[in-house]
Amino acid sequence: MRAKWAVFICLGTLAIAAPGMAGERGPSPDWTPYPVLRKEVKGRTELRLVAIPQGFETLTDFPPTVGHDPTALARVVPVNPEGTTLRADGVGNYHWIMAQSSGPQQEYTWTTAHYFAMAGPSPAAMLVSPKSRLEIIPQPLPREFSRYRAGETGHFLVRFGQHPLPNQVVTLYAPGQPEERLATDAQGILRVQLPPFPLSPSQQTGPQPRHRPPLQPFQLAVTWPAESKRFTTVFQYEYGPDPFYNRNPAWGWLVTGVGMVGGASLWRSRKGERA
Amino acid sequence: MSGRAISLSRLRSGVQIILFMVTVYGGLVIGPYAADKISTALPALSCTYDQQNGAWCALRPFQHLSSHQVGETMARTGTADWALFAPLLWTLLAFLSFFVVLNKAFCGWVCPLGSVQELLYTIGRRLGMVAHNLPPGWLSGVRSIKWFLLLFFVFLLPLAAGLGWLPGAAGEAWCRVCPSRILTTLLTGNGEQIALAVGDSGDIVLGLLGNLLFGFMVTAAVVVRQPFCRICPMLAFNAIFKRMAPLRLTKNPHPHCGRCRSCHAACPMEIAEIALPQDKNIFHDDCTLCGRCVEFCPQDQVLHLKFGPVSLYRSRPEIFRARSRVELANGSLRTRKPSAEGVSHG
Question: Which of A52, A57, A129, B184 has the largest count of CB atoms under 10 Å?
């Protein structure tokens, strides 16, 4: 009985402390009160997550599936203090990655998605199926060859126990930006305009290769009281500079116009030809 | 097939319109993630930069594999073995499994860029613009460009970028140049791709080439039949494996072959070999299986579109007469009084 209480108290303490745990391993971000797990991509088939706070003992990897319950295929990976590696195991496309700490008064869930650049089923069914009680679900996730970008609007479904949460306040956090409080609509859909991307002086003056633009994390966080508990869920993902980063529309249209003039030099009307 | 002649051109136009919607806007119907799935199975449809498409083009994975998989690993390890090239070969096999069935009909029936060029040419005919064929001396030179583009822009430049010898933009050299990137994104209301990339030297050089080529193609297509198709590396890709394809163009030579040359005039790719008295090289590297030559052959059962041994469509005098009432072989409309053949050289 004493041991049971000890576990109870430990879990409760961890859960309450979770939002402030980011500094316990890795750099402490000043832009969010929640843990920021850093992603290190290892080729097409491996993802290493580092700076995992102590409250999380395992990571759960939900691969995309067709015709199966994604939770039945989920793989639970023990957290390694030096960094936890997740592998695609032959199934590419988007995986949903989740870490949870649960206590008697609070349940804290950290989520993200990762695209393993190899063939795999559509993640549509995996995203729709319930993976935790309180969820922030991207609708849709950016496809391969795409990403969230500054100034563009992303859509997210916020739900609890599979029921959308209308008019629910969600907070957006991003580096260098003040936190922004947003609200879901009547269908539980959150529309988020990604904030400006803070370019470093060298990124502003270039030259910068466009094919690997800089990325930085953002977080959406929501809290919902239910069943005498406080549920908190954070969705962390990355976004890049605005679509016209290192692009010049005026020059693009001008050069296209030069090409068009070249093609139009072949034009002759029948009247002109007879003359 | 008796009674009213079936217009292959009308059937093809209908298929092109449907597949244009699928390839350019299909993601809106089948969901945002299905393109990944479809592209795994049918890897040769629309541009990857079009985020609303239903599936994407095979040339992008080829470049990425050459650059990220082969080139970067060779640069890192200093070795090259069979395992390194295996993914590239698997992608090639997936591509082939699709093309064994459809092969070059992709170009004439599916490709959205081809459909737009045909539309532009039709507009030019309706506006009474004088159509051009390539000057006779240019044809063989232009035909070889697609092979150069396939080898250098799809495989070698991405490989060199992966090895670190060229700027990173060369890792997808062909996509940066391909007019489909600009066209399909503009058609979905996205002006990002027509904006000139000004990141590094590779971005600028490839961006300039791409925008110039797109601009030239749009206006040239009004008076020249499918100008970009003639140099498209996808056509070259298809040509490599055309002998494996059950869908093909065949000919039973007729004593009159070579006299009217109507089939040659009808061919948007100007394949003169179709009109020769013998049946050699009828299914040419440049053939897009559009079937116009079959429609405009005045002889009975000389030209066939076949799937294996089965003749799907064959030339017949009544089809020729029906088509010729509407337009000339070169696409000019009958409603206007045409010049000699409606076509000028140069």
Answer: B184
**Could you tell me the pTM of the whole model?**
0.77
pLDDT in tens, A83-101: 899 998 888 888 999 999 9
pLDDT in tens, B27-66: 666 666 655 545 444 434 556 666 555 455 666 666 766 7
Predicted pLDDT at A121: 76
Q: What is the pLDDT of residue A205?
A: 55
Residue B258 in tokens:
């070579």
Rounded alpha-carbon distances, angstroms, from residue A54 to A19, A105, A220, B188: 11, 18, 21, 46
**Cβ contact A192:A153 at 8 Å:** yes
CA distance A147 to chain B (A): 10
Measured from the Cβ of residue B13, the count of other Cβ atoms closer than 10 Å reads 16
Q: Check CB contact under 8 Å for B219 and A262.
A: yes
Percent of chain A scoring above 70 in pLDDT: 82
Q: Which of B176, B194, B216 to mutate to test the interface with A (most CBs of A within 10 A)?
A: B216
Query: Residue B118 has which token pair?
Result: 């045909």
CA gyration radius, chain A: 23
Mean pLDDT, residues B166-183: 88
Nearest to B215 among A124, A140, A258 (CB): A258
- DSSP type of residue B273: G
Q: Which residues of A touch B31 (CB under 8 A)?
A: 122, 124, 140
Distances (CA, A) of A184 to A158, A166, A181, A211: 7, 6, 10, 34
Find out whether B308 and B245 touch, Cβ atoms under 8 Å. Answer: no
- Per residue in B309-327, pLDDT tens? 999 999 999 999 988 888 8
CA B270, CA B236: separation in Å to the nearest integer? 16
